[in-house]
Amino acid sequence: MTADAAEPCPLLIVISGPSGVGKDAALSRMKEQGRGRHFAITATTRPRRPAERDGVDYVFHSEQTFRRMIERDELVEWAEVYGHLYGVPRAQVRDAMTQGLDVIMKIDVQGAAAIRRIAKDAVLIFLRPPSVDDLARRLEARMSETGDSLHLRLKTAQREIERAGEFDHVVVNADGRLDETVREIAAIIEREKRRTPQRRVEL
């Protein structure tokens, strides 16, 4: 058996998709499974929601601090989304991959495109709803959006769904099918781990 076959290279896996599609729920279920993965914690300037924990759900920063991180090239990628800044700390990803852990990042569609440019061997997975109408119902049920905000998110979602073809894999996350969605993502990761030649990511 070759060294490559014995020790698969750690993967950089990007989970993306429109707001409200269920990325957080899918990742939470994946975290429960363990399996030697590191789930990258995104840094952001947006206000913390009541149930969120700093350093667990996101790393919350002032805009001034975040801008300094950009200047120091401390982020793998960053983007402005709905007026707030989001980015993944580079050191966090490097440290996990050095330990041989697959790294899973949850980022928006434009952030996924940036990852593709700097790490062509990253695995990009697009999570999409069965339809835009289905997504609208989810966002309305969340009751965290005003009329104008909801309209903006749906318009953005439509544009993002049109870019699903830029991803390596597309997974439909239907209501009540979360476990099925997570199983499909896990199967994609396992197939990618067995791929020849292996994906090799350097950041």
Shape: globular
CATH topology of the domain at 3-40 and 101-193: Rossmann fold
Overall pLDDT level: 90
Oligomer: single chain
Helix tally equals 8
CATH class of the domain at 3-40 and 101-193: Alpha Beta
So, the CATH homologous superfamily of the domain at 3-40 and 101-193? P-loop containing nucleotide triphosphate hydrolases
Rounded Rg = 17 Å
Percentage of residues assigned to helices: 40-55%
Main structural class: alpha/beta
Written as H for each helix and E for each strand, in order along the chain, the element string is HEHEEEHEEHEHEHHEH
Q: Which spans have pLDDT < 50 for at least 5 consecutive residues?
A: none
Strand order of the largest sheet: 2-7-1-8-9
Strand % is: 15-25%
Question: What's the count of strands?
Answer: 9
Which CATH architecture of the domain at 3-40 and 101-193 would you pick? 3-Layer(aba) Sandwich
Q: Major beta sheet, specifics?
A: 5 strands, parallel
- Cα(first) to Cα(last) distance is 28 Å
Please sum up the structure shown.
With 203 residues, the protein is of the alpha/beta class.
Question: Would you give an account of this structure?
Answer:
- The protein has helices at residues 3-6, 23-33, 63-71, 90-98, 109-118, 132-142, 147-161, 178-193; strands spanning 12-16, 37-39, 43-44, 59-60, 75-81, 84-89, 102-106, 123-128, 169-172.
- The protein has 203 residues and is of the alpha/beta class.
- It has a domain at 3-40 and 101-193: 3-Layer(aba) Sandwich (Rossmann fold), CATH 3.40.50.
- A 5-stranded parallel beta sheet has the order 2-7-1-8-9, sandwiched between helices. Strands 4-3-6-5 form a 4-stranded mixed beta sheet.
- A hairpin with a 2-residue loop joins strand 5 and strand 6.
- The longest helix is centred in the last third of the chain and has 16 residues, at 178-193.
- The radius of gyration is 17 Å and the shape is globular.
- The model has no long low-confidence stretch (mean pLDDT 90).
